[in-house]
């Protein structure tokens, strides 16, 4: 009897242990199942995060004068060492720009906020300042700077000398910034505004009238401006389409020159019926050599002062604003 009880107790104990073992396995299996579910959920979430991160870093290849360059598909932190107006025209405010353009591109001031930091003057750009701004794209006019700038961010050379007109310039910048639609829209608006400016001076300016732009900022001599480059040449001759003085055309424009240094003794040879005078401190007293007062444009009160800090730049946006102001000066009405 005793022996039978021992066997029964042993059987019961064995069954009890077996039940505990099965319960433990079941609990562990449940925990493992729960853990696996969490891992699966985490795994299912990772591709979305990775895809989003990958999208943010998408790049594309564009062709430049220095070869193919890999740039961000949608650059957000752009630095320009010269061509500020080109990127502003397309709705991009850079994080850094040349101090020279910031000071001598006054027509661009309404489009620039504190976001755009000074990276140094032309020829003295600070790579350290560039690094601090964490750019994702740098646009430079100087091929010699590509190697240095490329250590900071992808760098593209934008050479306005390669383009024949404002349309080509804006289209090319649209490709660099991947803002082709914005470029088309800006050019459409540009044409409309140009036509308004031209209409202002039609009927006010004689058809055979000639024009000149003369820089007297140094007063030691004069600079007569052609139809391209800084000091309003693009605005007057290409946008408004007025007629340059014959000597301006033959000695500067036809020779493909931007400007010509002319002594005060010879300035009368280049002065048209209407003269735009580029100077500093517009409105203040200015003493000029007596030959200036002998010009027909001066005698007929057809001289209009232009602020050097507004007319030094020649980007499409500045040139458009310059043309509108010139039209307003010629007609004596609001811009």
TrEMBL record:
Family membership: Belongs to the bacterial solute-binding protein 8 family.
Name the record gives this protein: Iron complex transport system substrate-binding protein
Keywords associated with the record: Signal, Transport
Keyword NADP in record: no
UniProt subcellular location: Cell envelope
Extent of the signal sequence: 1-29
A single Gene Ontology CC term: outer membrane-bounded periplasmic space
Domain Fe/B12 periplasmic-binding: from-to ranges: 75-334
BP GO annotations: iron coordination entity transport
The organism's place on the tree of life at top rank: Bacteria
Source species of the chain: Paenibacillus uliginis N3/975
Start and end residues of each stretch annotated as Disordered: 31-56
